[in-house]
Amino acid sequence: MKEHNDEVIKKYKKSIFIDLFVSFVPMSTVIFCTHVFTNMFGYFGRFIMFGILLLLMVFYLMSDIVFSNQSIGKRIYKIKVVNAMQNTKITFYFVVYRRILEAFYNPLFGKSFFEKCMEIDRKTGTIIVVKKWLYRN
Q1: How far is CA 36 from CA 24, 31, 44, 95, in A?
Q2: Helix spans in the chain (H)
Q3: How many angstroms separate the CA atoms of 33 and 109, rounded?
Q4: Which of 39, 40, 64, 82 is deepest in the core (most CB within 10 A)?
Q5: 126 phi and psi, to 5 degrees?
Q6: How far is it, in rounded angstroms, from Cα 30 to Cα 56?
Q7: Stated pTM of the model
Q8: How does pLDDT run across 13-72, given as a tens digit for each residue?
């Protein structure tokens, strides 16, 4: 069982890197381009950039919901977030709460990655599992 946990944790760590890259690279681009849009469109350019930035942040928080409890990184590494007690899909609230914890209480920094992952799992009542593909004949 320990090997399975190590495999899931490694996949989860890699998926967080991908999710952060997919979300924060466009966000930082928008932030850096705000000056250009302000010069081109005046104050309306700031509203455009704020709207785009807001949409990107919502996408980051909702990516697990949009992709059926699998963000882009989790989908690539074939893992998903499920309810720890029933092994079922998690609710909207816990998806957003988990994403906020992943962003601000980031398991990539600070104490051991495994401990922070377990803390996020405990706080949200969720767990990361390997997605099992069912094949039909």
Answers
A1: 19, 10, 12, 35
A2: 2-41, 43-66, 72-76, 92-104, 113-124
A3: 28
A4: 64
A5: -120, 170
A6: 9
A7: 0.74
A8: 888 888 888 888 888 888 888 888 888 888 888 888 888 888 888 888 887 777 777 888
